[in-house]
Amino acid sequence: MSLELKSKEFGKIEILPALQQDLKKFPKHQPIISRLDEPFGKAIFYDLPGIGLHVSYSEYHIKRPVTIDAGADQAVIELRIAMKKQILGKWEGFKEATIPEDHFCLCYSPTVVTHAEFPDPAFYSTWDIHFDIPFLTSIAKDYPVLQELLNKVDRKEPFQYRAEHYICTPEMKGAIARIMENGHSRASQAWNLTFSAGELLISVLEKIGGPMSKYANLIHNKYLIDRLMNAKTFIESFVTEKEVKPMELKEVYKKCQLNSSNLSYGFRTIFNTTPRRYYEDLRMDLGKKMLRETDHSIGHIALTLDYSNIAHYSDQFRVRFGESPLQYRLRFRKNRNPEDGKG
Asked: What CATH number should be reported for the domain holding residue 94?
């Protein structure tokens, strides 16, 4: 994939060829390597080709806060894993795309348009696995959560299993270690890479939703699944940057023709959350964005998000994130401007 990189802080970013010392990370592989060397820091990217997929490992040594914009006119089905530090930013078509450290996200985007934020001078590392559709199709018959993703691909609709819910399991970390090692002969490395990446994908699918048996009552009921997807979209309509409206579940029942048990069970089974929790997640995500990107007062943000008062909003924010909205804003701005306050 050919990416164009730029930063609003530093302009166009040049992708450079590898240096000799860059080969030391994967001495037993033959990766395609590229790197960045910019005022904000350095980065190196390793691309490991498999069969039906390719694996990318990236390291960022950030010295100054930066947002890196990347774009490519190409669809991607991707497993992203934040190994060191969280991945903060947004992707085209997604309201929120932050991936906490040691968490993963499985997603589909019709075009690659990303805005990756690096707010702290620190070391970041990520794994990205891009899958070909035929490879996934062979697995999807046993994993409805994957079939749901492929259905979105057919309709060219952006889709993700939200990263904040999914922490990496020991099985996933074991598969990653085997990808790093892969000490087989060069002739067999692509096959072994594919096997280990496939093992990683299976661990992800088991974590998200388990095998067919868990979904047996849903997967054969297209009527119910369609209405659950409509319910998710309908809930999202209550939270926009222009307006946040109070949500009553009875509105969702009526609009999407679902009873309370089908809506609750379906949401837990497919989306690993509840309708109410999903609505609150959307509100909190929008609030964090406003804290980062605007100068609105905390009271104004609380009112915009349809909280009864600033105290209620602050209490809910602190319960979820371990700090107040003001502390979050100040910490973010300090990380974005590390020179502030120095004499």
From this structure: 2.60.120.280
